[in-house]
């Protein structure tokens, strides 16, 4: 099959941001995730937890809470503003200053007509949700402490507010407030006020609260009395979430544990009153859990360790399957590393800057598995800081290494690079076409003569590049009139074809020379996670979020024979059971039958000339093949050659000189830079 | 001091509510008090004492009815209120007079009304420092008008000089000029909120440890027991290790030098 020299790159200091808030929309089955740097991510839970959309953050924006009202997403943060997001254009629609100081929480009532926010100055402000905006309605009585958490009663007439040392229940009908006093913790924490971090109001007027003393308390909302206290942890209880049928409440703590309480009868005797009983404890995080959501069949948690963990509840599944396994989403489902294949340069995209590195060189030869000595070390050529407050949304590097572009929500910048031996000079291309305001994806053509920018409503702007200036040529528009943004874009090596994929799972192929739509690939139910166009045959290879692989011939406008064969045979179970999506598809110019793919945990070469594996063949057979003799091997070969030597892969590319570049980011390195976890005393350590 | 004495004598009188008898000693003290009591504004009180003093020492103590004492108490309270009111009024008067004086002085400084109107209608230019700039603009305008004026009063001449000086004057008080962009965008309330949450989660009393310890514990308790993170992972804490190396070398050097 081949021997490759591998550039093993570990100098990409990719650092994800901690998760601060999440909100699940049961109608559309989307989870909105708010991170500490102000970015919002939308995950499609109906499509294998694929990260559909990413709205980049901003320096001045802070997110403390998120909430859905119908299909609209609102967030509120410590900068005192309520922001509504435009999910079709991936930007905030507008920001409304609430004039209450920093906002700690935002929640909507079950009818979706009002939004309540809890402010630092002690007011609960009510906003009316209108067609295109929100409008301030009134303030509830101003309190002396800050309002940390809020919860509406399902009827919409009462609001429970968690504050310092107490919970207040506001009644809209009688205009009275009931005060529930939360007592402080034991020992040393008596001197500090107890912060009621989260509160939940159930329809039978039970209030469940989690506070900083580590207690989960169940209150009777009618009488204002405490029913039960559960001391759950020594540290804070940071997040609470109730299931839709109100039979289960999950609680997240600073230790990283998620504890479930269920409303059941404590013993098996009949006619026993139901009460809230602590049932399960999950420890899936190493650091504080700050955001929780209980959806129908799973518990979703996220926190300071930046991982999104989906823990399916096993009693909701009939059998153990792929759907009932624990899922951890650690890396983004899009590319952050771009490789200039001809020049041997790597571009790393950070939210705040771009880094351009030149790969090292090695002369040595060795056996497979050896580490070759470096003749020249990899060096950082360029560190380009972004201008302005908006974080970098996407970037691109041309394959010759001469052009560099990046886009934020407010601007696009294009740079010309010149490398003379060891010097590198960068010049900004000054006047970009006015139509190029921001782009969701950027892509250079392989001869670096054109820049493709994905713009609003799934359209693509074609910009012609010349020596040091650029000109707008044309806008390629899809026929379907979809308003969703493009998240994948790829073009062919001969410069003739451009393929785009949007969040509606539509894939369009455009003829770049004629500047018009060529064909639309039949829509498949799952969103494509990676695409690539073969250099010689111009077949479009697509890998979807549910791990299905398709190959479509652009010239013939139909699926290829190999693709039909694969679909008929079906993919191997172990391939379909993988839990991270494929993020990059690339090809080997020297061997046209090979397709190179990778996901976070494996690197795979699909050889189209070899037979496809059926369910009974051993899937991960590389080790076995090595132990077999030369005569025995051909009978055991199959098309999927998987290598698991390299872990935590962010990107795999093949340079023109036939060497592979594997960019790894060990999870241990990420953990070492996280904020401090709690100190837990373990026996015998 | 005297006031206190007098009131003490009156109080037991009121408290009992019945007819009471005052001790003889008190009478002597009372004799001394007339001189000091004249200092009081309560004329009625002195009248009271005069009445008492008129009677001879050998007589039986006076019968003072409850209504009388009540009346005298009410009178004294009314007097006190009146005095405080009078004092307030006096203060008000003083303040009013002062205000009027200032107004007059200001009027004298200002220009005649028609010139002011003309200045007001002219478009306002850059408003960087609203207070100061407006003032200096105003004064600048006044200066330019002054030059054309005939028969300027002394006050105005003084004004022009002040005006010119004012254009080049330094900012009084604690002002400093800086760009909005240079300041961080978080205002103080936001900063307080961020500090609050930082202090609650990571501040004192939060019992936190390091990631190193977390991972080292995992190493020690895991199925394959191994050493702490900083020893297992060569790249962990490289700065600390480099520093330790340097210190070690320095110590060795120190050890060598005295011996050699």
From TrEMBL, chain A:
InterPro entries: UTP4 (IPR046351), WD40/YVTN_repeat-like_dom_sf (IPR015943), WD40_repeat_dom_sf (IPR036322), WD40_rpt (IPR001680). GO terms for biological process: maturation of SSU-rRNA from tricistronic rRNA transcript (SSU-rRNA, 5.8S rRNA, LSU-rRNA). PANTHER family: U3 SMALL NUCLEOLAR RNA-ASSOCIATED PROTEIN 4 HOMOLOG (PTHR44163). GO terms for molecular function: RNA binding. Transmembrane segments: none annotated. It comes from the Eukaryota. It holds the Pfam family WD40. One of its GO terms (cellular component) is t-UTP complex. SMART domains: WD40. This is UTP4 small subunit processome component.
